[in-house]
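--- STAGE predict ---
source: upstream dedup step, 1 unique chain passed
mode: sequence only
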Amino acid sequence: MFPAPPPVPMIPAPMMVGRLQFVSVGKENIATELERIRELLPRYRYVAIDTEYPGTIHGTPAGAALTPAARYYALVKANVDEIPILQLGLTLCDEEGNLPIVMDSDGGPLQLAWEFHFSDFDIARHPHSMESV
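--- STAGE serialize ---
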């Protein structure tokens, strides 16, 4: 269909400290979690983002004038521009790849990552791929 993106160079994974806790963020706790993220950013300056969309609705664009990379970009852009986002994942880390650590209620370490949920998706109104929903 379209060429795969170039491989990402492998780097050593940081050592896991404690359990990984995904913080679910919605309208009830967004202010609190955004403040926590703001406080962590001076130490954890690197941000990884992952997004979830309800499938793809556009196929690979035609055009011999497009390079494989440009064709892939056009495909992703066309879908992202038209389809609403369902979820955004956010992970912070420091220069060594270490995630923020907080203590749980028992005093054990938890590494943090966040999942922001968007609740306005309506299968009857919004474009989507039936295979993905």
